[in-house]
Amino acid sequence: MYLSNRAQTKQLVPISEPLLQFERDWTSSIIREAVIGELPTDLDGLKQRLAALIKQDEEDEVESINYVADTMSLDEFRILVQEFAPDGLTEAQVFYYLIPRLSLEAQMPMLRMMVDEFGSGNLQRSHTTLYIKLLNELGLPTDLAYYIDNVSPAAFDFVNMFFWLTVRADDPSYFAGVITYFESIIPSFFQCYTKACERLAVREHHYYSEHIHIDVFHAIEGHRLLRAMDKTGQLDCAKAWQGVCFGREITNRAFESAVNKARQQVACSPAL
Question: By C-alpha distance, which of 42, 53, 23, 64 is closest to 244?
Fold first, then answer.
C-alpha cells in the first residue's frame, strides 16, 4: 500500500481497485474499533471531547513512554528512530494534497503549519532535514528505499494513514480532527524522546525538541482550522471526531509496535 501511495503522489500512477478496497476496509474497521463515546454534533461538543481526551492522554502513565524516557538503550533507540523514518523522511509532504479540498479561509491555518514543517523555506530547518541529521548521528541510512523492507507494518500504517486522510478520505474533516489532536498532544508526548536523547547523549535531538516548541502554536492553528471549516459549513464534527480517534489508535499502535520491536530485537541480539 505504501509503495502504491508513493507512486500515485509522485508519478500519478493510479492505485488498483483491490488496494483501494483494502484501504476502505482497513480505515472503516479501525474507525469502528477506535471511536470513543457518542459522536459530537457541533463544534463545541467536538472541542469538549477533544480537550478531555488530550487531558486524559497527557495524564495517563504509559509504560512504553516511560521506558523510552528512562530506560531505553541506544541500540533500542536506533530501532525506534528507524521505525518512524518513512514518516520523518517525507514529513508533511502529502499535506499539499489537502489544500485544494479546503475553503480559502481554512487553507490559511493549514499553510501556516506547513510553513513551519518546511523550515520557513530554509532547507536546514525543515523537519525532514532534522530527521536526516538524527539518522546520520545514529548511523542509520537516509535512503527511504532502505526502510521499505526494514520497518514493521504498523509503521507503514502510520504513513499510509496520512495518504488516506489527505488524498482519498471523503471529507477533510477527518484530517482536521487528527491534526488538531496530534499538534495538541505532541508537546507532551515527545518529551519521552527528548529525555531519551539527553540521557543517551544524542546531539541531534532537534527533530523532537523543535516539535515540542512549535506544535504548541500548531495546536492553535488546528483549532483555527476547525473553526474556519465550521464557519464555511465544511466541518463534519462527527467525522472530525472519528478522525481524532482513528489517528490516535494508529499512532499508539505504531509507537507500541516500534518500542516492542526495539526491545525484542536488542534482547535477542548476541552479546559482544
Answer: 53
